[in-house]
Amino acid sequence: MSSMRNAVQRRNHKERAQPAHREKWGILEKHKDYALRAKDYNEKKKRLKILREKAAERNPDEFSYSMLSSKTDKHGRKIQDRGNVSLGQDAVKLLKTQDAGYIRTVIQQTRRTREKMEQEYLLMSGGSVKVLGGEDGAEQGNHVVFADNTEEQRSLSARHSTGKTASSAKDRMDQPTRKDFNQDSLDSSDKTPPDSRQLMLKKAQALQALRQDRAVRKLRKRDNETRQSKLSALRTREKELLATEEQLEHQRARMSSSIGGINKAGVKWKVRERKR
After folding, report:
1. Backbone angle region of 251, left / alpha / beta, with phi > 0 → left and psi within -120 to 50 → alpha
2. Do the beta carbons of residue 103 and residue 248 sit within 8 Å?
3. pTM for this structure?
4. What is the DSSP annotation of 218-234?
5. Chain segment 118-154, per-residue pLDDT in tens
6. pLDDT class for 38, splitting at 50, 70, 90?
7. Which one-letter DSSP state was computed for residue 21?
8. CA 126 → CA 56, 109, 122, 218, 224, distances in Å?
9. Are the CB atoms for 232 and 223 separated by under 8 Å?
10. Alpha-carbon span 171 to 168, nearest angstrom
11. 108 in Cβ contact with 229 (< 8 Å)
């Protein structure tokens, strides 16, 4: 009879989900979740009850010799040994030596990566002239001009910016614009010279080349910004690693008593040097 009852298709009872307007509160708690939470709450409640009973029935005159060796902090909590074995001085020195070797290896890798990226960035930037004290947004290359005084530096900066402005203005004048293309198309529609089709084709090709040039310059600018951010991150990482190596060397020197320092009592001391 039970096998026949199991053979009949029965409805699957499903628990409801969290309503849409309460999704910010997370998943809806089911009965099994509530059972686990209630069990944990009751266990903690029993444990607290036992501790209260022990505190109420405590004997103030109770004494044990272990109380002499035990310590408590300022909050009354017992300080107990965790069983950790402290390493010897030689073992710690060896570990710090290995750490210093690893840090030096990472510094060398970071330095090589930074130098490689700097060379790539100089090649991509085209090696333009860099005037000391010039504009920050100017393109920097591997050619540096040194000035003897402030007046010469200002003249070099003005000459560099004037040449760059003149060249850029000349390029803008030589390049065709959309307005010129539209004006030429209107004039060609009115007069219709024999070679108007070839002229329009040349203008369209020039306009297309201008668009491509702008797209290439935008991609190049974005690539340069990405390289600059990576270079700054590498420089920061190298600086932090160098500071870590210096601090580690300082710790090793203090452990070997080759330099002075401040002891636990706050007294400054230094190594006694031999008189010459």
Report:
1. alpha
2. yes
3. 0.41
4. HHHHHHHHHHHHHHHHH
5. 888 887 766 544 433 444 444 555 567 777 777 777 7
6. very high
7. G
8. 84, 26, 6, 16, 12
9. no
10. 5
11. no
